[in-house]
């Protein structure tokens, strides 16, 4: 195709080199309670937050919410007695279409916007956190950073095939700006905060 | 491209026929502008973020050829297939050829203003490929046979009753139902079946990182991910200006994008696509379509810094009262008015005049594009090149003659005051657009100059 032609024209027309700014010099809020801010942002995103002491408490909460006829899956091995454990990709991803709840871990959370960072290696199926009707995320309070600059310091140097910041359930306001949860992805989200 | 009336002023008249709707449109967009204000005021370092974003983009434009080469190399190493398209036609042919190679004639597509710019849907449909837009707002306008009227809020011009009617006809929802919750649930059901059966998905690209070869797609609905992860073939189309140098720069842009667009701190999903899934093909189409020429125009190249948040549209007093379709292009509003004349000066000569030059667009722009200055500069270029509307040319020449001679000026002032006082119907008539929705105050008997002469002691 026109690769050479395009590159040549870009090179001819681009202005003299302008240097990059040092983004580390952007001032950011200091001494904030990141866990508190994270929880506040999650509530604004309509995420149900549960502060729990152990995985047992997570099991109790989930068993109180879901019936045994619903398909629950998890990528957390120690939750395999309440949901079917996905260790690796074994089936076609389309087979996940009837998953009611997916319970997954996250690498870390971001206080300023309530987002959690999830990669392919911890969900196995890329589509899992999107195709499930409901999503539950398990994360330790120790893993909350203040803002997106801190977040990208953590992703730098890690390898992932696919990664996504997830901030609450799927939503749309395309019809007259009325917020509706559950556009195409999960209709609701729970977040379990471990010590 | 679908176009109706090819002139902003004439199309605005049509939009303004329904006063109630114009008022609603105006208020709704202003409400979003206010949400943007709240979100940005929450961040003490907002201006530092804007400055940094602007400087990063300045660097990108000044080193674009190198970044494109680096991005291509990294993306290829990640297993992605790269294509280069010089213009819209090439872009459309590339996408079609990828689908043909796989024998695919049905595709899902998430939001991509670039494919709107290139007229991809029409091209593919003409070639027997069915395209289903999966963003709810885009699906609604697609069912209505209209283009999007806003880059972030594609059906902001539609009332829920009209959407209910469309869904009743196409998705068999109950007649007369217009509850957004109910209508969204119906679309979810309809599109879920579509996602599960399509082999190809096309997405746009918000940011492409030269350092890593990854590209980032931001949505609230999750439609880009549902499409891309379930498909055998994922095609991502991007303008060549979407490149950013390093991954850490995403931190700056993702903090600005959603806050500027809708007042959210971040979109629900910010997906980073690096390597294809096993048994999946990922293609990236790098599209020029006039951008490399635009880059050479010193006065106008800053417009290429745009991250498509739509903040300039939400704040614009003209956009809010004329609607997106009046700009007859994929990207409407102030930013569309400075981008589109680069592609076709003659066809878009009306757009730089669709502004009050109030400057609000430049003030809210997260990458600090000098939008209102460029609008003003475009007007000068257009008049010089002979693209100004004939009536404007005549009146400007007349004005130039009057203002250059004190004698003529004094006489003209006197006559105008006399006419306004004695025969107002000569000017206040249907032929004079100044009197549309306007009344002039009563004209004084004397000019200030005459008054000063008479009263000076």
Structure explained in plain terms:
The complex is a heterodimer of chains A (195) and B (457). With 195 residues, chain A is of the alpha/beta class. Helix content of chain A is 25%, strand content 25%. Chain A is built from six helices and twelve strands. In chain A, the strands form three sheets. A six-stranded parallel β-sheet of chain A has the order 1-12-7-4-2-3. In chain A, strands 8-5-6-9 form a four-stranded mixed β-sheet. A two-stranded antiparallel ribbon of chain A has the order 10-11. In chain A, a hairpin with a 4-residue loop joins strand 5 and strand 6 (115-119). Chain A is globular. The model of chain A has no long low-confidence stretch (mean pLDDT 96). Chain B folds into three domains: 1-42 and 303-388, Fumarate Reductase Iron-sulfur Protein, Chain B, domain 2; 64-289, 3-Layer(aba) Sandwich (Rossmann fold), CATH 3.40.50.10420; 394-455, no CATH class. Chain B starts with 7 loop residues before the first helix and ends with a helix. With 457 residues, chain B is an alpha/beta fold. The interface between A and B is large, with 73 and 89 residues.
